[in-house]
Amino acid sequence: MRTWRFRAIIASLMITGLISALEGTIITSALPTITESLGGGNAYIWVPNAFLLSSVAVLPMFAQASNIFGRRNLLLGAVAIFTLGSGLCGGAGSMKMLIAARTVQGFGGGGINLLVETIVTDLVPLRERGKYMSIVYLGATVGATLGPFLGGVITDKSTWRWCFYLNVPIGGGELFPMYAELRNDTDLHQTVAFVCLFIFLNVNHQRGVGWKHRLARIDVVGNLIFIGAIVACLIALTWGGTVYEWSTFHIVVPIVTGFAGLFL
Hints:
mainly alpha
């Protein structure tokens, strides 16, 4: 029998995935209005790409860190970063500032996407994961589909800044949760926090270990190589055929370097 807390977790994770996916696509229809407002020339293409790049680049780091510091702490941090990035995007006064803010927002979005899936695998056995993963990703699918439509409506009826500001009250409210304890000392030791949309969990990780030892367990070099490789690949794919020809060294060198870094 699934408890009400479990159902609340699944429903909240589904809404979490919806919001993150919505932010990844809402920019497409609002981008012409943003470019007209902020200028920036050809730099506009990095507004969606900066979010994608940063959200992918931090995936290994969030995965490793969640095993060291616990799911709840990392999820709280990801939501805080995502909310901060959303506020910075809404208040951007130039295209460069918007791209930088989208990068910050992508850091949080990548962590949210990863930890949502990780929490589901912590909660349910292998034979049931397909069912509950489909429920959670239903929200992400709806969010990705509604994004362009909602972005167009917001820019027509209001200002493009509300494409980002709408995340601030939701994310900010989640940083002050009311906690309810739910303990299982066998495989899962978790704390469930239920406020508005999100539920934050504590899953078993190594406790009683100093911060110095925990930080030493993070593969800093490997994560930096992965981030650099992803940046190189995306730069080549973004510039190829538009800024430079595919056969020029501006494209060939980043692609070769990027795939070499991924292999390494």
